[in-house]
Structure formats: structure tokens, C-alpha cells
């Protein structure tokens, strides 16, 4: 591992953080345009974060230290997880210390802390959010892991860089298991990022809200950190899908400045495209009843499992 | 056969399994009909791809039959029946969706376990196709067993039949005569069932099969 | 080495006798526990030396008691040494906790004498190198723990729990006796060495079945788990910790010893029942735990889940070993033993925490707790660490063993058998599902007990627990973290164990850069807990620093907002029942045949609305209830035998004699 690799890794870590609000700004803009609204500027999330961070934090009287510490820990774990996903360059040093299962588990840690934070003040809405979040997670997390299994069985590795390299190589073809894993991953990303058929990121006063219910008591700098964490999480999922299923253009570590620039451009294009598709899907569909969501996420789990099982057919008979 | 060719065949056959699962998942009548149409499209695509791979022009006819009858005519007809009869638009299940899906996964595993060892002499590609086809057949059966509504049972039956066609097309194609006769038999079955639907509906004012059982004194 | 260990067991037994006299005074109780802690720590140290010493062969001590024909042999081979480390480390810390906690016992005379005997029994099982002393140790462990379960005998439910436990324990011991009898063969060499020499082909499958029944009933495999949630919570909390975290591990040891060591080379299909039972155990265990509102019962059910995870690893190891994939088998086996170690740490920690809560509030029911994080900050921190660890979340240790198990699962496509290959992904999905549900379960456990507002007076009047307990809990929390960020050392010390069990060891790990573990190949997978931990700390610190520099420092305390519905009543909080309701609705309708009925009074009516939830324990209804009915009916019939005339009794004896003679006569 050379120093330049570490430098690129550092740049990538910073990039993830820097562009995450932009991504959520872009999705909001696309959504507004699809609904024939003008929409706020794509830079609005940055302004929101700045505004929140400058405001006074109001904390419920009976909140414990956990309530105040949780945002930072949630943000840190999400950020670390996001730094582990190759964006414009793969084969970076961090890939060799943590694989995709670790990414899933880090997101699990963040979710665990968030659910606890939702329970800390002892309000009915917080409990509602935590309870539902853990229910959905109990289906979404295994679904994600099954999709990961499919990918790892293909590539013979759980490291994202190796998976990405395998997808570029001749070994990967058009395969039903891959398609199933992709669909499962998309469903999980929708569920985990509180997007529309599962949860509504724009709502604040609705009985069906989940993510917003957990962070209802937060304000000021704490809320800003949590919002940033949510944006990073969305970026993570889209980058993950882009890295695995559209590996073209991603630079390999040590490839030189030009390749990095091309990788950066490719990454931006992929992300924009994925964001557009996500929003298109979101605007075309209505929000689900809460108890329909487990079935929706259960489908992802089934697809992941089916993909793994079908993989044995194609792997073995060849 | 190049790897890509077999990959595409695999993808098409696999997507039929996937669509069978979607059929199981649907709880709305019209969505069910739409998914069934897609099921037939996937079948048509799969058979057509086989026709191309095996240089067997008669399979194109099979594909066409699948596309026209099962992909267009039957779903449209069923939709009209549903509208005309005012059948309840949501589907009642006997077993809820989650366990049904789990059972479906187990069935897919079972068909793989059953098919792959007994077809060891065949090429890899035929074996996979047969495993997929058996899965589709079993899932169709599962659907017929776990749904209460007569319309969804019809759909289950026809998706089962799609699985049979898939199996036949993979195994070096079956004679056209057989294919056409199967097609006609399905058509006839379809007509018979729809006539029955009318009659049932006239007599009992519902197509929920449980109501029929009750009138025979079987249920409860 | 073995002499030292054996004398440790002797010391514990002596302490047990001493306990009868010492328990009359509080100081005596404390001293006995302190002595237990010291002896256990020494035993753990001895065992660790035995495990790590290069080329440490089996040296054994013979003790001139036992069966007339056999010899009583005690000794430490790597397998028993590894389990001895795990058992005694946890036992030492639990005993340290008991120095403080044990003082609260109402009837110390019912606890103190049995406690050292319990630990001695477990150690005897581990040290035994022959079937006789193994079974003696096993029975000592069972009976001592049975007495401890019965220590608070005034509650009828505890007596019921003890009865169920006694029945299960004696049944388990019987099956183990049969297993050893089969292994020893007709010529009856009962030392393990002799058993290994005798070819045991043919009896292998039966031994596997008996081991699953005997060790499985002790460990809590579904459907033999029924006694765990009854008996573990009934005992005082430090004993619960030992029973749940340590004794179940001794059962795992019994299974490993019988199946991997003594029963000869496995056939591939052995893994199928093990994997199936393990997967069902993992999933059902966590679902049971989620439905439970009693903190200690929740933890006991959760032990069932973890035993499932351990047996998944063992089942995979069997499958790989039978197919000659020794490296993969070593990985799966090491994952299982790593999880044994982890579970002994965090489950003791969590039981101690629940004991501290029980002491402070007198409540085990989470519906009556809440807000303890402020009254009991140290307990809360330690309990939180345990919750994160048991939910298999990085950077704590539970994640490492689960990660290793997943890595082993991902090697399964290389298995030659169809059934195994299709079964293993399904097992993987079950494992993933139960891990996610475990997180939900411990959000509930921690959130309901420690967060929110106190739901009762008892909860609001709670105070922090004593010093000894705090230190013990923090020590375990630290160990959980250390094992999570430095897993390489643990894996390396398991090398000799996997060598013994599956004939292969993992590549040395502790020399890897960044303390990462690389189970198979660096291009396949790697995990560095230390690095992830440092990264999280750095990221959190950097964020806090930036926020501190940029953000407003103003902080205002105000009433909770709650979407504009502030309500002073703590009753409006989510309860344990309401937290689990969605999960009950999604998973429970099939598994528990859960039904909900809401009785809502008409508008204007001031009657109370009622929500009634009906849950069925399917396993109990399907398996135990019929057996109980059968036994009861038979007992009813046989009861008549108590009132016969002497002539009738004589007739019975005579008939039995004649029948036996006929059998003997016709057998030849």
C-alpha cells in the first residue's frame, strides 16, 4: 500500500461526506420537477445543515447522555461504512480491513443506536418509530445479507473491490441470480433510506412515519448531524449498487490522475442516474400501509435467498 | 452454444420462476392478471430463444401461441369477466403470503434437488431449464392450493401449464401437434372454467370457493 | 498442569463444605465467593497455559477412586483446556460479582454451599478423560444447579421450574450414559483413550442422536429448551449467569467431545440434523425472547438462540470435515468455539446487569422499569455494551464470531452433496434473520429497562449497585470489546483445539497487519476490528470537534415535544409489549398462533378498553403437553397399584420373575 493510495482513500472519505447533501438535494430537485414544481436549489440541504447547526439545541428535560452522544456515534458509524464502499476508485486500503458484511453490520450498529435514541425521551412517537424500524430491519438486514451472499458466491470474495473487479471480468454474465440480487438490494435501499413506499422522507406529522418519529425530539446541531448521517446513508446505498452492478469506469488504485478523474466522472453519472430512477419510482408509487411493508421487504429476502439457491444451479451444472 | 446464449436462456427461464413468485405475492386481482401476462411474455421469450438456439422454427409458433393467447387474450378476457361479474378485487388467501413464499422457496430447492441428479446425462442447460420448469409447475400448484378465489386458481392453473411448455421447449422441443393440442386443451379448460364461473356466480352470488363448500356442507 | 487443575476442583469441593458453615455470616459468604473467584482465576490461568504451551500433550492424573474395572483419569487436552479457560474466566468474574451481589441472598445457606460444588462439577466434566468421571461431573453439575434453582423455593413457579429441570437433566444424563456405553463397546474400556482406540463405526449415528438429546437438552436445543427459561431466571442472578452463560457451554463441550472426538470420522449427513435443529433453535429462540417481558427470561430464551448459532458452526464443521475440506471445517469450528467464548462473556454480563436491576428495583418485568440509565449509570453502560455485543454488532465481539460463521457458510458451494449445499444458504438466511431480530430484542431490553421515563415508583427510586458488581460488569464489558477488536489472539489460541477436533488449524492471525483476521485468503475476506473501532472513534471525535467549533453551543432543556402531545404520564410511553407488537404480528401469527382482540367500549361509555393478546407456545403444546398428559394418565392408572393386597403384590412379583425367566430362556 503506497501513501498515494491512502491519500486517495482519504479523499474518497471526504468526498462521500461532502457530496452526500448534494445527492439528497438532487433527489429533491428531481422529485419536485417530476411533480411539476420548481423545487429548491440542489444546494438547499447544505443551507439547511448550516442553519440547523447554528441554532440552539433543545433537549428534552429527561434525556440522558445517550440521547446527546447518539447522533455523533450514528454519524461516525455511517460515515465509516460509507468510506468502505468504493466510489470512484476501488482496491483502496480500507477494503482490505473490512468487507461488505462489515458494512451491513456497521449500518446495523447505527440503526441500533438510533432506535435507542428514539426510546430515550420516553415519548409515544419515539417508541413507535423505534419499534417499526427494528421490525423492518429484521427483514431488510437479512435480505441485504442474502444479496451479499449471492454476490460473494459469484466473486468468491466478500470484499467489494474483488466483487467489482469480478463483475468487470469475463466471468460475470447475464444471470438471473444477479438480477435477483439487484432487485433485492434496491428494495432494501428503499426501505433502509426511508423512501416512499416504506416511509416518507418529506413528512413530519404522520402516523406512519418511522425515521422521522425516531428523531422527533432532536433539534439544532444534533438534528443536523443526524440529517447528515441519513444523507450519507443514501449515498452509501447508491454507491454500493453502482460499484457492484455498474463497475465500468471505476479507477483501480494506483492508476494515475486521469483514471481517477474519469472514475469520478463515471461515479457522478451513475449516481445521478440511480437517483433519477429512485425518484421516478418514488413518484410513481403510493405509500404502503405499515403492515404491508414487511411483505415488501420479505420479498427482498425471498429474492435474495432464491438468488443464492439458483446460483447453485448455474454454478454447479457448468 | 456460447456462454452468453445459455446465460440469456437461463435469465428468461429464471425470470419465469421469479414471476411465479410475484403471482404468489399479488393480492390484487388486476395486478395478478398483469403479472400473469408478463409470465406469458417471459414464456414466449424463453421459447422463442430456444427456437433460435435449436434452429427449430415450429417452436416460434409455440412462442406466438403463448404470446397471443396467454399473454393477451386470456388476461384481457379474464379482466372483462372480473369487471362484468363484479368479483371482489382483492384476493383472499388461505395461507398468508409470508409462509406461502417460504414454502415456494422450499419447492424451488426441492425441484433443483430432484431434477439435477436425474438429468445428469443431459447438457447443463437442459438440466437448468428442467429444474426451473418444475419449479414453475410446483409454484402454480401451490397457488391453486393456497388461493380461495376461482379466478386466481385459474391463473395458478395456467401458470402451471406455462411451466409444462417451458419444460417441453427445453427438451429438444415437442412435436407441434402436441403443442397445439395442449394449447387447445387449455383454451377449452379456460372456457369451461369461465362458464362455470358464470354459473357459480348466478347461483351463489360469489366466486369464493369456500361458499361452495359451505353449500355442500363441507366447510366448518 | 493437570495436577494443578485437579487440585483446583478439590479446593472448590472443600469450599463447598466450608460454605455450610461460612454462610451463616455475611462475611463468610463474601469470603467463600472471593475464594471461588481466586480458585477460578487460577484454574483459568492454568488452563490458558495448558492451551498455549507449545506441543502440550495430554498429561493426566489418575485418581484411585471410581469403577472397579475402570480408572478415573483427569487431564487437560487442548479441547478441555479451551473450555476450561472459557468456563473459569466467566466463573471467576461472576464470583467476583457475587461478593457484592450474594450478600443480598435471603437464605444464603441454600446458595453458598452449592455454588462452589456447581463450579467444581463443571470443571470435573471438562477435566474428565474417562466416561465415569465425566458423568459424575455432569451429575454433580446438574444436581448442584438444581439445588440452586430451588434456593428461592417459596415461589411455586420456582418449584415447578426445578421439577422440569430435574426431569430434563436426568433424561439428558441417561442418554449420555447410553452414548458412552455404546462407544465403549462390549469390552468396556471407559477411558477416552480406550474409546478412541476402539473402532466405533456403526454406532456413530446413534451416538450423534444421543449426544444431540443429552448435550442438547442441557444446552437448550429446540425442542429440548423448555426448562431453560423456567430454571435460569429462578436462580439468584449470579447463578443464572453461570447456568446460562457457562453451564450451556459445558453441554456444548459434551457434544463436541462425543461427536468430534470420540465418535470417529463423521458422515456428511450428520450435519443435516445438526444444522436443521440449530437453525430452528436460533430463530425460535430469538422469537421467544422477543415475546418475553421478563428481563431474565428474555435473557434465558436468548441463550437458546446463541446455542443455535454455536451449533450452526458445529454443523458446518461436521459437513466440511466429512467432505475432507479441513480448512473450512477449521474455520467453522473456530467460529463456533469463538462464539462459545463470546457468549460466556456477554451473557454473564447481561445476567449480572439484570441482577443489579432486580436488586435495585425488585422488578424483573420490563413493563415496570424504565429510566434506569440515570439512577444506575455504570450498570447501564456495561449492560449497553453487552447488548451491542450480543446483537452481533461491530466493533464488539459477537460480530466477529458471526462474521466467521458467515465466511464458513460462503465456503459451502464447494461441498459435494446437494442437500448440504441447498441447506446451508437457508441456514445462512436464518442466521441473518435471527441476528437482526436479536438487535430488535436488545433494543427492547435496554430501551425498556434503562431508557425512557420510570414506569413505577420502584424504578424511580432505584440506586446504583455495589462496587464489586460494578467492577465485575465493567471488566466483562471491556473483555467483550477487547475480544471484538483483537480477535486474532483468540483465534490463534484456538489453533490446537481445531487441530484436535477437525485435524486442521487456521493460519496464524495475530501477525496480520492492523490486527485483522483473514480466515481464508486476503483476497477473499478480512476484518480488522481494531481498525474499524479506531475509525469510528476518530470519525466521532472529528465530528464532535467540528460541531463544537462551528455550531452554536446553546443548549436548552425543555419538556419533550412529542409532536405537540406532551403528556406527563409515563404510561403513554411505548412498553415492551407495544414495542414487540409489530414483530409479533408479522412473525408470531405463525410461530405462536398469536391472536389479538381489542374490546373497545362504545363512544360515551367510560369503561376501560382492553387489548387481549393470546400466545401459544407451539413446542410445548405439541411435544410436552401430550407427554405430560400421558404421564399423568399412566400415573393415575398405576396409582391403583398402591392399594393392592399382599397376595396381589406377590402375584406381580411372581409374574415378573416368570416373565424374565421366559425371556432369558428364549433368548439363547
Q: Could you characterize what this model shows?
A:
The complex is a heterotrimer of chains A (318), B (220) and C (668). With 318 residues, chain A is mainly alpha-helical. Chain A is built from 11 helices and 3 strands. The longest helix of chain A has 32 residues, at 3-34. With 220 residues, chain B is an all-alpha fold. Chain B has one domain (3-216). The model of chain B has no long low-confidence stretch (mean pLDDT 77). Chain C has 668 residues and is mainly α. Chain C has helices at 2-22, 26-52, 78-101, 114-127, 131-149, 156-184, 192-197, 204-219, 228-234, 237-262, 271-291, 295-322, 326-361, 372-375, 377-390, 397-409, 418-450, 457-460, 467-485, 487-493, 495-502, 529-550, 576-591, 618-639, 646-667, and strands at 60-63, 72-75, 555-558, 595-599, 610-614. In chain C, strand 1 (60-63) and strand 2 (72-75) form a beta hairpin. The longest helix of chain C is centred in the middle third of the chain and has 36 residues, at 326-361. At the A-C interface, strand 1, helix 3, helix 4, helix 5 and helix 9 of A face helix 15, helix 16, helix 17, helix 22 and strand 3 of C. Strand 1 of chain A pairs parallel with strand 3 of chain C.
**Residues in β-strands, percent of chain B:** under 5%
Mean pLDDT of chain B: 77
**What's the helical proportion of residues of chain C?**
55-70%
Q: How would you characterize the largest beta sheet of chain B?
A: none
Q: Which strand order do you get reading across the main beta sheet of chain C?
A: 1-2
Q: Based on DSSP secondary structure assignment, what is the total number of beta strands of chain C?
A: 5
Number of strands of chain B: 0
Helix and strand element order of chain C: HHEEHHHHHHHHHHHHHHHHHHHHEHEEHH
Helical percent range of chain B?
over 70%
Q: Could you give the distance between the termini of chain B?
A: 57 Å
Based on the model shown, name its key terms.
heterotrimer; A: 318 residues; mainly alpha; two-stranded parallel sheet; 11 helices; 3 strands; 3% strand; B: 220 residues; 82% helix; 0% strand; globular
Amino acid at each position: 500500500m503506497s501513501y498515494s493510495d491512502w491519500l486517495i482513500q482519504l479523499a474518497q472519505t471526504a468526498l462521500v461526506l461532502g457530496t452526500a447533501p448534494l445527492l439528497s438535494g438532487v433527489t429533491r430537485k428531481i422529485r419536485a420537477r417530476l411533480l411539476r414544481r420548481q423545487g429548491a436549489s440542489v444546494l438547499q440541504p447544505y443551507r439547511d445543515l448550516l442553519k440547523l447547526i447554528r441554532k440552539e439545541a433543545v433537549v428534552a428535560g429527561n434525556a440522558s447522555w445517550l440521547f446527546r452522544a447518539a447522533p455523533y456515534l450514528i454519524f461516525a458509524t455511517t460515515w465509516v461504512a460509507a468510506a468502505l464502499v468504493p466510489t470512484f476508485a476501488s482496491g483502496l486500503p480500507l477494503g482490505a480491513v473490512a468487507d461488505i458484511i462489515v458494512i451491513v453490520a456497521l449500518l446495523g450498529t447505527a440503526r441500533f443506536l438510533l432506535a435507542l435514541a428514539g426510546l430515550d425521551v420516553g415519548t409515544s412517537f419515539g417508541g413507535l418509530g423505534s419499534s417499526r424500524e427494528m421490525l423492518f430491519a429484521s427483514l431488510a438486514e437479512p435480505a441485504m445479507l442474502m444479496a451479499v451472499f449471492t454476490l460473494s458466491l459469484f466473486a468468491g470474495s466478500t470484499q467489494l473491490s474483488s466483487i467489482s473487479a469480478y463483475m468487470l471480468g469475463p466471468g460475470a454474465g447475464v444471470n438471473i441470480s444477479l438480477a435477483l440480487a439487484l432487485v433485492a438490494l434496491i428494495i432494501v435501499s428503499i426501505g433502509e433510506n426511508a423512501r416512499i413506499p416504506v416511509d416518507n422522507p418529506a413528512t413530519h406529522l404522520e402516523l406512519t412515519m418511522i425515521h422521522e418519529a425516531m428523531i422527533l425530539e432532536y433539534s439544532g446541531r444534533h438534528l443536523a448531524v443526524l440529517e447528515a448521517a441519513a444523507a450519507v446513508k443514501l449515498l452509501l446505498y447508491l454507491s454500493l449498487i453502482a460499484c457492484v452492478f455498474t463497475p465500468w469506469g471505476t479507477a483501480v488504485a494506483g492508476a494515475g490522475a486521469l483514471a481517477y478523474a474519469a472514475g469520478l466522472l463515471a461515479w457522478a453519472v451513475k449516481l445521478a442516474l440511480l437517483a433519477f430512477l429512485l425518484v421516478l419510482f418514488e413518484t410513481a408509487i403510493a405509500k404502503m400501509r405499515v403492515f404491508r411493508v414487511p411483505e415488501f421487504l420479505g420479498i427482498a429476502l425471498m429474492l435474495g435467498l432464491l438468488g443464492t439457491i439458483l446460483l447453485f444451479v448455474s454454478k454447479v451444472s457448468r | 452454444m456460447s456462454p452468453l446464449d445459455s446465460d440469456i436462456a437461463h435469465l428468461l427461464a429464471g425470470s419465469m420462476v421469479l414471476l411465479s413468485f410475484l403471482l404468489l405475492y399479488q393480492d390484487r386481482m388486476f395486478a395478478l392478471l398483469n403479472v400473469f401476462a408478463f409470465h406469458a411474455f417471459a414464456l414466449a421469450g424463453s421459447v422463442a430463444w430456444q427456437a433460435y438456439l435449436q434452429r427449430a422454427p415450429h417452436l416460434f409458433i409455440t412462442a406466438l401461441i403463448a404470446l397471443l393467447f396467454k399473454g393477451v387474450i386470456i388476461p384481457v378476457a379474464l379482466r372483462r369477466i372480473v369487471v362484468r361479474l363484479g368479483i371482489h378485487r382483492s384476493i383472499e388467501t388461505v395461507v398468508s403470503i409470508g409462509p406461502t413464499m417460504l414454502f415456494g422457496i422450499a419447492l424451488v430447492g426441492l425441484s433443483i434437488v430432484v431434477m439435477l441428479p436425474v438429468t445428469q446425462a443431459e447438457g447443463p442447460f437442459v438440466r437448468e431449464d428442467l429444474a426451473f420448469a418444475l419449479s414453475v409447475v410446483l409454484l402454480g400448484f401451490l397457488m391453486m392450493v393456497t388461493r380461495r378465489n376461482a379466478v386466481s386458481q385459474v391463473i395458478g392453473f395456467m401458470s402451471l401449464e406455462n411451466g409444462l411448455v417451458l419444460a417441453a421447449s427445453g427438451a429438444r422441443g415437442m412435436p407441434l401437434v402436441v403443442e397445439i393440442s395442449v394449447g387447445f386443451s387449455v383454451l377449452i379448460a379456460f372456457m369451461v372454467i369461465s362458464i362455470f364461473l358464470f354459473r357459480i356466480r348466478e347461483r351463489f352470488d360469489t366466486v369464493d370457493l369456500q361458499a361452495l363448500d359451505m353449500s355442500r356442507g363441507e366447510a366448518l | 498442569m493437570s495436577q494443578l487443575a485437579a487440585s483446583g476442583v478439590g479446593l472448590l469441593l472443600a469450599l463447598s463444605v466450608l460454605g455450610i458453615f461460612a454462610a451463616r455470616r455475611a462475611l463468610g459468604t463474601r469470603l467463600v465467593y472471593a475464594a471461588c473467584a481466586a480458585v477460578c482465576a487460577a484454574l483459568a490461568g492454568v488452563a490458558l497455559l495448558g492451551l498455549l504451551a507449545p506441543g502440550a500433550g495430554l498429561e493426566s492424573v489418575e485418581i484411585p477412586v471410581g469403577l472397579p474395572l475402570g480408572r478415573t483419569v483427569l487431564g487437560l487436552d487442548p479441547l478441555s483446556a479451551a473450555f476450561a479457560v472459557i468456563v473459569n474466566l466467566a466463573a471467576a468474574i461472576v464470583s467476583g460479582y457475587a461478593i457484592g451481589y450474594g450478600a443480598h441472598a435471603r437464605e444464603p445457606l441454600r446458595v453458598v454451599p452449592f455454588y462452589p460444588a456447581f463450579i467444581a462439577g463443571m470443571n470435573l466434566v471438562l477435566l474428565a478423560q474417562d466416561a465415569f468421571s465425566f458423568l459424575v461431573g455432569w451429575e454433580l453439575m446438574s444436581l448442584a444447579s438444581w439445588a440452586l434453582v430451588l434456593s428461592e423455593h417459596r415461589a411455586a413457579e420456582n418449584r415447578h421450574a426445578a421439577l422440569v429441570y430435574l426431569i430434563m437433566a436426568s433424561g439428558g444424563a441417561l442418554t449420555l450414559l447410553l452414548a458412552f456405553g455404546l462407544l465403549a463397546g462390549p469390552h468396556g474400556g471407559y477411558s477416552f483413550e480406550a474409546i478412541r482406540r476402539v473402532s466405533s463405526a456403526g454406532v456413530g449415528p446413534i451416538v450423534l442422536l444421543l449426544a444431540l438429546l443429552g448435550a442438547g437438552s442441557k444446552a437448550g436445543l429446540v425442542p429440548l429448551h423448555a426448562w431453560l427459561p423456567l430454571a435460569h431466571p429462578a436462580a439468584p442472578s449470579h447463578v443464572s449467569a453461570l447456568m446460562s452463560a457457562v453451564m450451556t457451554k459445558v453441554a456444548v463441550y459434551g457434544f463436541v467431545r462425543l461427536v468430534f472426538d470420540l465418535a470417529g470420522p463423521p458422515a456428511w449427513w450428520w450435519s443435516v440434523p445438526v444444522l436443521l435443529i440449530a437453525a430452528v433453535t436460533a430463530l425460535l429462540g430469538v422469537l421467544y425472547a422477543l415475546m418475553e417481558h421478563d428481563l431474565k427470561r428474555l435473557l434465558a430464551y436468548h441463550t437458546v438462540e446463541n446455542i443455535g448459532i454455536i451449533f450452526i458452526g458445529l454443523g458446518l464443521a461436521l459437513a466440511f470435515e466429512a467432505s475432507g475440506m479441513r480448512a473450512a471445517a477449521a474455520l467453522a469450528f473456530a467460529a463456533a468455539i469463538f462464539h462459545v467464548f463470546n457468549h460466556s462473556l456477554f451473557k454473564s454480563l447481561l445476567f449480572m446487569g439484570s441482577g443489579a436491576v432486580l436488586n435495585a428495583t425488585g422488578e424483573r418485568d420490563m413493563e415496570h422499569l424504565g429510566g434506569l440509565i440515570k439512577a444506575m449509570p455504570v450498570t447501564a453502560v456495561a449492560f449497553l455494551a453487552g447488548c451491542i455485543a450480543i446483537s452481533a454488532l461491530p466493533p464488539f465481539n459477537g460480530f466477529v464470531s458471526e462474521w466467521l460463521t458467515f465466511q464458513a457458510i460462503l465456503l459451502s458451494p464447494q461441498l459435494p452433496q446437494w442437500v448440504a449445499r441447498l441447506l446451508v444458504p437457508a441456514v445462512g438466511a436464518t442466521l441473518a434473520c435471527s441476528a437482526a431480530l436479536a438487535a430488535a430484542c436488545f433494543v427492547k431490553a435496554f430501551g425498556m429497562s434503562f431508557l425512557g421515563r420510570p414506569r413505577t415508583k420502584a424504578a424511580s427510586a432505584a440506586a446504583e449497585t455495589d462496587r464489586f458488581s460494578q467492577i465485575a460488569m465493567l471488566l466483562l464489558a471491556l473483555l467483550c470489546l477487547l475480544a471484538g477488536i483483537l480477535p486474532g489472539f483468540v483465534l490463534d489460541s484456538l489453533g490446537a483445539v481445531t487441530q484436535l477436533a477437525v485435524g486442521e488449524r487456521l493460519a496464524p492471525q495475530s501477525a496480520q497487519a492492523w490486527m485483522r483476521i483473514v480466515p481464508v485468503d486476503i483476497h477473499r475476506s478480512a476484518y480488522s476490528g481494531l481498525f474499524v473501532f479506531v475509525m469510528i472513534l476518530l470519525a466521532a471525535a472529528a465530528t464532535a470537534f467540528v460541531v463544537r467549533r462551528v455550531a452554536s453551543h446553546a443548549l436548552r432543556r425543555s419538556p419533550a415535544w412529542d409532536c405537540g402531545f406532551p403528556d406527563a404520564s409515563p404510561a403513554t410511553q411505548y412498553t415492551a409489549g407495544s414495542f414487540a407488537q409489530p414483530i409479533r404480528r408479522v412473525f408470531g401469527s405463525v410461530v405462536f398462533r398469536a391472536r389479538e382482540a381489542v374490546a373497545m367500549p362504545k363512544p360515551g361509555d367510560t369503561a376501560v378498553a382492553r387489548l387481549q393478546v393470546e400466545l401459544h407456545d407451539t413446542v410445548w403444546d405439541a411435544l410436552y403437553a401430550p407427554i405430560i398428559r400421558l404421564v399423568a394418565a399412566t400415573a393415575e392408572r398405576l396409582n391403583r397399584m398402591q392399594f393392592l393386597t399382599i397376595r396381589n403384590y406377590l402375584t406381580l412379583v411372581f409374574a415378573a420373575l416368570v416373565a424374565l425367566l421366559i425371556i432369558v430362556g428364549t433368548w439363547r
